[in-house]
Amino acid sequence: xxxxxxxxxxxxxxxxxxxxxxxxxxxxxxxxxxxxxxxxxxxxxxxxxxxxxxxxxxxxxxxxxxxxxxxxxxxxxxxxxxxxxxxxxxxxxxxxxxxxxxxxxxxxxxxxxxxxxxxxxxx
Length: 123
What we know:
Layout: E1 3-7, E2 13-17, H1 19-40, H2 48-56, H3 60-67, H4 72-79, H5 83-90, H6 98-108, H7 112-115
Helix pairs in contact: 4-5
């Protein structure tokens, strides 16, 4: 890492470095912040085995519902939808409304983004 310091015309001390070195510093800062958040419990982490289960699940919703210990029937009843509808959301056969995903996310303690599949469901 090559760092140069200079003094601006108004007396301010400036540091010059390559964009790559600057990005490395930003990445290190972000990694440290993430580690603090993990240590404090504000970022959810999964074990290696749970990551494998997550990746094998049909949708993130299917994983998180099971991971949190809910049956489809219980979850459906709590958020006000039918169990078959929830099953279709979980296996990617249907797309849910924003309000349904908001209720699911709230009950599971997650954000809506954490429940949505990476690819749109088949209609």
